[in-house]
Amino acid sequence: MAPVVVAEQVSVTFGAGETAVHALEGVDLAVGAGEMLALMGPSGSGKTTLLMVLGGLLQPSSGGVRVDGQDLRHMTEEERARLRLSRMGFVFQSYNLFPALTALENVQLALALKGRTLAEAEALLRQVGLGARLRGYPAQLSGGEKQRVAIARALAGSPGVVLADEPTAALDSAHGQAVVQLLREIAHHQGRAVVVVTHDPRVSQLADRVVTIEDGRIRP
Fold it and tell me: Which pTM was predicted?
């Protein structure tokens, strides 16, 4: 599998002096196309910080990240934003859907931001198993359905990288299992690099690789 996302000696420090917090220290990581990788570790271990660095949402204190061979260190914030828009999809625990928009409209909005045709939205929702819920508003959807809308939105524009932060934390066992399986299929059948930050053992069971972080370092 060709590496799509590569982190090299990434360190992140918040604050300075005696109060400095070392969130990440010398992290190396590569994620390939078609791979689903689970990032696991205790709370405060640096998992979400690493996901933010991989997604170009947080600049590391040292080290760097390459996405599709492009070094984020050499980009302006505007260039990183364009890269995120064109090459990355994000899935969050809290769904982040617009309550006044239907499932279809939530996905159409993401497509519009990426300059893509709105006709793709229905196909994306059918792909994640929500063909019958296109007109449903978030308040009318179950937690699992809302997360599927969020995943469809993340897939808008065919990003090569999908980054998910605790996507099953708010879901029951059945819905959580279905979401994990869907993320796995997205990696394997569509050749995307999928990184999932999680405490959920269901994710580790289906992931191609599990990386454990403790105290800001990847555990051997």
Answer: 0.92
